[in-house]
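Re: weekly structure request thread

Next one in the queue (197 aa):
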Amino acid sequence: MSIRPYFPSKPIKLDYIYFHVGRVSVLWADAEQALDRIIEIFAQANPQPLYAAPISTKRRIKTFRSQMVRIKLTDDQRARGSDLIDRFENLAWYRHWTTHGSVEEISMRGETWRGQKGLVSFLRQNLSTREFEVHDLHLNDIEAMGDEALDLYVGLVEWKALGIGCSTTKKIEKFCGEGGMRLGRILPLGKARDDAA
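Done, posted below.
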């Protein structure tokens, strides 16, 4: 292991790929953990004797959807939860490619990023058909995936805390303030906050 982290003075395309794919992975883990906390709350509110916490992404999504039907929620709460899980499911498909696909050699050609096309080819074997599949993503799309994962994390935490009433605005602001964070989002959901005071 090196003593100093690698910070390239002239980054090559692979450096950008590593940065953005790593960012997606870290922010996705945050969103996944936020979803897990909500599923735990649902399980406590609607106990089932044979319940087992979901491990796979597909089971998490399925569990979230089925629990939203069983839990008493308002139409607005249900609509917001449905929107969040739809976005989560959509991002999961793309994240699967960046996490489980290998970067094709053609994506690494060229000395620097300038002047190159931003396409990154991911290759993975389909375990059902045993055939290899390729999916091209633009580096800007991978960056947007990281932004979406962060937005999902914030949205899920907000929905859990305020949307379904697991916390209060004051508690969230106090927690964030103690951690040195400043909230730039509107709290509570849909209502303007007076920052001038």
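The longest helix spans residues 13-45. The two ends are 50 Å apart (CA to CA).
Next request, please.
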